[in-house]
Design goal:
alpha+beta; six-stranded antiparallel beta sheet; 3 helices; 36% helix
Length: 184
């Protein structure tokens, strides 16, 4: 019992000495301690500023990839567009190209849920691109297509119906097969 108490007392004493030595100014005269403290603070400030600058660039790159898309094709030909919309061109059309504010007629099939099942389809659906008449996934995903072209779109919830359940489950990915019939 005595040995344990003696060891604890010795450990406390050693811990106290370590704290005093490692404390700012521990064992130094006050002027030197103040200089050391200021040097440490300056180093920390500089390190934080450097990290903040480099992180801003990285954050901006991530933001651009998410909201503006990468535009790069994967091995299977899939491109990521704005808001995480993925598209794959199945056939390239020969007619006029869809741009913002174009009046477009399309044929589509919508699949979703687990397992993927047909939720909706239409042989003739007309809308104006970029006017908010359809979900954002369509406004973004059909731009650049030509009449006669077919494209597969994978639309995440933020560019689709959000948390609404339209038959695929709340917040589900939506899989569209879109063929452009006309554009004016």
């Amino acid at each position: 019992m005595r040995k344990e108490a003696w060891r604890e007392k010795k450990e406390r004493k050693q811990t106290r000495k370590r704290r005093e030595l490692h404390a700012v100014g521990g064992g130094l005269d006050p002027k030197l301690a103040a200089e050391r403290l200021e040097q440490r603070r300056n180093k920390k400030r500089q390190k934080n500023d450097d990290n903040a600058e480099s992180n801003k660039g990285q954050d901006r790159d991530v933001f651009d990839k998410i909201f503006n898309g990468t535009g790069e094709e994967d091995a299977d030909g899939t491109r990521t567009l704005e808001m995480g919309i993925k598209c794959t061109d199945i056939t390239t059309g020969k007619g006029s190209i869809i741009q913002n504010n174009s009046l477009v007629t399309v044929k589509y099939k919508l699949r979703g849920g687990k397992p993927l099942r047909l939720i909706d389809s239409s042989n003739k659906f007309t809308f104006r691109v970029g006017k908010g008449e359809v979900i954002q996934g369509w406004d973004i995903g059909v731009q650049g297509m030509a009449v006669g072209g077919t494209r597969k779109l994978i639309v995440p919830p933020k560019a689709g119906y959000g948390g609404k359940d339209i038959g695929a489950g709340a917040g589900a990915l939506l899989y569209f097969d879109i063929t452009v019939l006309s554009c004016s």
